[in-house]
Amino acid sequence: MYVNCENANEHHNAKTKDTVFRIVGPAGVVLLGDGGRASTQSLMEEERRKIQRVVQGVSVHMIYCSANGDGVPLKKLESAVKKLKRTLNRNEIRAVQNRLSAIDTRFKMPIPKGIDPMKVRPSRKMR
Questions:
Q1: Alpha helix (H) ranges present in the chain?
Q2: What is the pLDDT of residue 28?
Q3: Exposure string (b/e) for 79-113, b if CB count within 10 Å is 16 or more?
Q4: Are strands 60-65 and 28-34 parallel, antiparallel or unpaired?
Q5: Is 95 inside any structural domain?
Q6: If you count Cβ atoms within 10 Å of the first and of the last residue's Cβ in the chain, which end, N or C, has fewer?
Q7: What would the pLDDT profile of 76-123 be if each residue is shown by its tens digit?
Q8: Domains in the chain: how many in total?
């Protein structure tokens, strides 16, 4: 299976440490949720809606990865992804990756210029 791991994007919830990885391959777009199924489900649905708006007609598969009975164990994750039906060729995969990378850059907040206000030290002259 052709998977470009460099372009596997991740979205996470800092509070619960749940992560969603997005992989584009021959099966379409595969969303891998790392964490409990209940807590990861909202992140996965949000990402699925975003993807379907940008690339209509491409299948989106959602796989939950967890050690307990909620999802696929890590050992069987590769075989679970490989079992998915192939629907895209290499040129279509590249086109889907390009469209999805465009929405990633659009929603990221720019880094402000200047000094970080949290790391400013008081001046020694003001003592």
A1: 37-54, 77-82, 90-107
A2: 92
A3: ebbeebeeebeeeebeebbeebeeeeeeeeeeeee
A4: parallel
A5: yes
A6: C
A7: 888 998 999 999 999 999 999 988 888 766 556 666 677 777 777 777
A8: 1
Per-residue CA distances from 8 to 25, 59, 116, 119 (Å)? 10, 17, 30, 32
Residue 68: pLDDT band by 50, 70, 90 thresholds?
confident
Q: Which residue has tokens 């391959």?
A: 25
Q: By residue range, what is the domain housing residue 69? A: 5-107
Q: In this structure, what token pair is assigned to residue 59? A: 């299948």
Question: How much is the average pLDDT of 7-25?
Answer: 72
**Predicted TM-score (pTM) of this structure:** 0.70
Please provide the size of the chain in residues.
Answer: 127
Supply 116's token pair: 């970080």
Residue with tokens 């895209």: 88
> Residue 122: inside a domain, yes or no?
no
Residue 54 · residue 103 · CB < 8 Å: yes
Q: Is residue 126 part of a domain?
A: no
